[in-house]
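Entry 0007
Protein: Nucleotide-binding universal stress UspA family protein
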Amino acid sequence: MSEPIVVGTDGSGESERAVEWAAAEAELRGRPLHIVHAVPKPPLFASAEKTERLRRAGKAVVEKAGEHLRERWPEVETSTAVVADSAADALRREASGAFELVLGKRGRGGFARMLLGSTSLQMASRCSVPVVIVRGDVQDRGEVQHRGEVVAGIDLGRETDAVLGYAFDAARLRGARLRVVHAWQLPTTLVDAGYTVEDEDARPELRVRLSEACARLRSEHPEVECVEDVVLEHPVKALTSRSRGASLLVVGAPERRWNAPRLGSTSHGVAHHAQAPVAVVPVKR
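Output (structure tokens):
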């Protein structure tokens, strides 16, 4: 069996959008879909009746989601799990060995404060598989992910193969154009010393390096139209503005320990402000 796409849900509108996005993605990629709901671990003094009530409530959430998806995406193989654990630990365990993990912008209960709180940012910064954050303010009902270009933001000072590989594959599957963006700014120390962009314009060199970074995947995917942008702009602003109308925005996050600090500043900012689903791909340091 191929690696599944795992999606977390709590039955909220935000997570329902994430589940629908994940189902359309599973159909697009020909992969099974695994729906996960986390319920709190019952305290030691909890009665058997209360524990069973909690389990039934969680089961109802995933069964409702599964029934809806089987009606709309009957070709997608779907499984469900109700896990008695914290949202982060449940998702980490269920996503182990998955192709990717899909989460909503925020949720309630087991997935409370998603994106603007701790859970999805924790997963995006430390998960060993790509994490897709589906923003609830995006009209994303599955069909939209087949329209609009795929945008990838890369840092030429880091390893780029993982982000570009994911992005080229996403563009190929969607029949979409790929826009690869490297944004740069003049270092503050040079600005303070009186240098201007004209004095230290790195764009020609960066364009060469960006072209070299994309060369192998361009040759492997000749069917993908790839546009390369080197822009003098803050990375979060550059990527957020280009996410308007995009089907997917792809960024990288350095692999970290599970108890390491939060997501990097660019990926963190993009996750908050992008106007398209954001795929955060783990990259080697």
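Curator remark: The radius of gyration is 20 Å. Strands lie at 5-8, 33-39, 78-84, 100-104, 131-134, 150-153, 178-184, 226-232, 248-254, 278-283.
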